[in-house]
Specification:
The structure holds two protein chains of two kinds. By secondary structure, chain A is mainly beta. In chain B, strands 2, 4, 5, 6, 9, 10 and 11 form a seven-stranded mixed beta sheet that branches. A four-stranded antiparallel beta sheet of chain B has the order 1-3-8-7, with no helix packed on it. Chain B is built from no helices and eleven strands. Classes of the chains: A mainly beta, B mainly beta.
Chain lengths: 113, 116
């Protein structure tokens, strides 16, 4: 089992829809989570960072962490065509691997006008 | 804030030559820098972790002598692909850890390498 599992999609939604992106993880050691957006042929861009269970909101984006079920989600409200990209979830490590990230496979999102 | 640059953005070279890629954190001091490799339609694969002034730590399966990493300062790390071969063609991305939230990693724009 991969440490971080993410449905690769692809996911296609109409403009204005609410998008739900999800990941599960398997290692319960100290962790923190990030969501990145990656446009084609570009480096990933940090969207959200969180380390506690619950919701964290930033503009149209909400990151949700449920540590009891080892489930993390990213919601995008009022989706726009410019949101079309690959979304990567990542889990940070603690201990001797502090700072290293394990990435999910990435979900390809297309928002069509 | 938290900008990371990479140079060059793309490079084409002949088989057997060496290629150096620079990664710079422009507006913060990076405690640690990471080098990743990404193949088309795949996620990022961590190659190595580098801390300023110390030897890089390589992931299992990554050849140390093939991918030389030098972390000269808190704002600069370089990756040199030595004696490059066509199978080394890939998208190389660096990230820098630091800024306001220490655990966050900020990525560079990537370097596309094509070895002929």
């Amino acid at each position: 089992q991969k440490e971080v599992e993410q449905d690769p999609g692809p996911l296609s939604v109409p403009e204005g829809a609410i998008v739900s992106l999800n990941c599960t993880y398997s290692n319960s050691a100290f962790q923190y989570f990030m969501w990145y957006r990656q446009y084609s042929r570009k480096g990933p861009e940090l969207l959200m960072y969180t380390y506690s269970s619950g919701n964290k909101e930033d503009g149209r984006f909400t990151a949700q962490v449920d540590k009891s079920s080892k489930y993390i989600s990213l919601f995008i409200r009022d989706s726009q065509p410019s949101d079309s990209a690959t979304y990567l979830c990542a889990k940070g490590a603690g201990g001797t691997s502090y700072g290293k990230l394990t990435f999910g496979q990435g979900t390809i999102l297309t928002v069509h006008p | 804030g938290a900008v990371v640059s990479q140079h060059p953005s793309w490079v084409i070279c002949k088989s057997g030559t060496s290629v150096k890629i620079e990664c710079r954190s422009l507006d913060f001091q990076a405690t640690t820098m990471f080098w990743y490799r990404q193949f088309p339609k795949q996620s990022l694969m961590l190659m190595a972790t580098s801390n300023e002034g110390s030897k890089a730590t390589y992931e299992q399966g990554v050849e140390k002598d093939k991918f030389l990493i030098n972390h000269a300062s808190l704002t600069l790390s370089t990756l040199t692909v030595t004696s490059a071969h066509p199978e080394d063609s890939s998208f190389y991305i660096c990230s820098a850890r630091g800024g306001l939230v220490e655990e966050t990693q900020y990525f560079g724009p990537g370097t596309r390498l094509l070895v002929l």
